[in-house]
Design brief:
Elements (H helix, E strand, L loop, with lengths): L7 E3 L5 E3 L7 E7 L8 H12 L4 E7 L11 H10 L20 H8 L16 E4 L5 E5 L8 H12 L2
Length: 164
Amino acid sequence: PASPLGFVLKDIDGHDHDLAQHRGKVVLLVNVASKCGLTPQYAGLEKLYGAYKDRGLVIVGIPANHFIGQEPGTEAEIKACCSTKYNVPFPLMSKVSVKGADKHPLYQLLTGGAAGEDFKGEIGWNFTKFLVDRQGNVYARFASKTKPDDAQLVAAIEKGLAAQ
């Protein structure tokens, strides 16, 4: 698929989650981890989701254990952390590989240039963010340290939501 919305991932409970169901919305794809210094970004993502979900924002959290083992748990442990510590209200997927030889095809698309030359390059850390427009095209990428309430990220979300 040429769009991130062409993929079906397993959700945190092991059920198929077809990203195509989010076509027509603005989707923020985030590789997440439960034991990272940036994990408090979950709280910011929760606020962002609360502020924009009614206007068409969907956040999809995608756990990955690439960066010094900061997502070592099972799906059940990840879900428990996300629901008890952060009360994550948005869709959470099962753990995937976001870099290396076994990189998930979604991340091959996002980082390999097929989603746009401007967005390519390996994932450097947890909480890297990709914005997908209502048509399913990637239109922005933000580094791990970009907080969910960062003015540039919020502006990019607003821009995506304003477009029809």
